[in-house]
Structure formats: C-alpha cells, structure tokens
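[Automated response] Your request has been received and processed.

Submitted sequence:
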Amino acid sequence: MPDDSFKEFVLDQLSALPGLRAKAMFGAHGLYSDDKFFAILDEGRLFFKTNAQTQSNYTDRGMGPFTYKMKGKVMSMAYHEVPPDVLEQPHELVHWARQSLALATPKPAKKSRKL
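Generated structure:
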C-alpha cells in the first residue's frame, strides 16, 4: 500500500479551498476544488496548473514542468512543481493554488443517456 502521508499533508495545507479532493489517476493523484482540476500529486511532488503568464513564477525558482513518458518520448504538461518553501506555508500555498484554479476549467458534466 502506498504511503499517503504526502497527499494528506497537501490536502491539509490546502484545506481552505472549497470541495477539495484527490482522485487517483495513472499512478498519481489529481487535485480538484469542486469540479476544477488544478493540481497533480506525483512521487512526493505537487504540481499546479500554469500558463504562459504564471509559469515564470515557477521556472524563475528552478521548478520544472510535470513530465511523463509516452511511446518512448518525454511529454510535459502545463503544470509546474510548487517550490518547497511555498509548500510549507499554507497561506502562500493557497494563494498559488487559487492562481492555478483561475486557469482550470470545470470537469465536463456527464451526459445522461436517453432511453
């Protein structure tokens, strides 16, 4: 059974966000606030959704994007690792998370099947 202590720590640090939950995905966890997917927890690291304007907050501090391998190629996503000093400060972490949430799109509603 995997150690969930980092996941529980992050969820505690971000407890000010509404409807916060972690959902298992591809060996990692996606973080949602209500219906918005805004973060990835993977191998003891937290990544927030970024765009061209916000990613420099991460890269200027030496933090890279979330990457994974697919068909022998390294792919990256518009999620960047949260700096350790931000992770340790709940108020600051929630501020960064809210910036990420502003970029996140709501999860599409499931279509009901008509019989």
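Summary generated for your ticket: The first helix runs from residue 5 to 13. The chain has a mean pLDDT of 90.
If you did not submit this request, please reply to this message.
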